[in-house]
Amino acid sequence: MRIKVNGKDYEVPDGLTVSLMLEFFKINKNYVAVERNKEIVSRKDWEYVMVCEGDVFEIVTFVGGG
Amino acid sequence: MTEDYLVIGDKKFKSRLFVGTGKYSTPEMMLGAIEASGAEVVTVAIRRMNIEGQKRTILDYLSEISCTILPNTAGCYTAEEAIRTARLARELGLSNMVKLEVIGDQKTLFPDNEALLEAARVLVKEGFLVLPYTNDDPVMAKKLEDIGCAAVMPLGAPIGSGLGIRNPYNIKIILETVKVPVIVDAGVGTASDASFAMELGCAGVLMNTGIAGAKDPIKMAKAMKLAVEAGRLAYLAGRIPKKLYASASSPMDNLIE
Q1: What secondary structure letter does DSSP report for A51?
Q2: What is the tens place of the pLDDT at every residue in B114-143?
Q3: Which of B21, B28, B48 to mutate: most A Cβ within 10 Å?
Q4: Prediction ipTM score
Q5: I want to staple B220 with a disulfide (CB 3.0 to 4.6 A). Which of B75, B131, B200, B214 is the partner?
């Protein structure tokens, strides 16, 4: 299925939880926050929330800043 | 001397220098500068994770040192964006503090006070320790204190300008107006600017470009550490009043004839 992550379209396997999606993208789960369709998905819910066709994700982290 | 701590909400810091992590040429340089500055509070920004390429984040580096993370909402031009960014920052689980910025103008990066107040109100209610970046405006500072901000952070001069404390009189009035810590944020160009802010009685100074943009950031970080400490000590010691004419330091009696 197709989803949008950080402004770009990706094809990902069906039946992914948010947690599995992060693994799919090989992302260090300790250092990110996830928004799905403009709503934050809490870390504790990553195991349960399913990724759906057409979902729009923002996956953010800290970067250098003042 | 009794220990002199900076207290913000439920947090207590020995160092009164807060440093940014932007604009460094390498992560190693950044770490070296943070270490040399002695800062305990370190600001970071929130951005999209690089999904395809390099996945090492700044936290991989910052985890090597002990520091308190202060996420900012830099780049936000509306209250909504700033609130959204602050919530995402807290979701990362490292800090409930936020350096709240709502920018009103791209060229000066001056804050949009109306939107800042709106965002601060929401975030305070949600339990954030809100440290707003604001103009050097005492009325605004008071409003931010009244709605529950944990500190106020008036600018010394525009972000990255290095112009120093352009309106020390306003900073003084802010210091008389609010009880929460006043931290000068932005504008510091060199050590004397930082000392000056502290001599005025500010609780702390936050800077990024002043260190990261120096020819030798690590040396400048050390200079800033000493400057903040010296300025604080001078403030606590109580400076002499300024006078127009001389008063001799040596005794005037028993002079040889």
Answers
A1: P
A2: 999 999 999 999 999 999 999 999 999 999
A3: B48
A4: 0.94
A5: B214
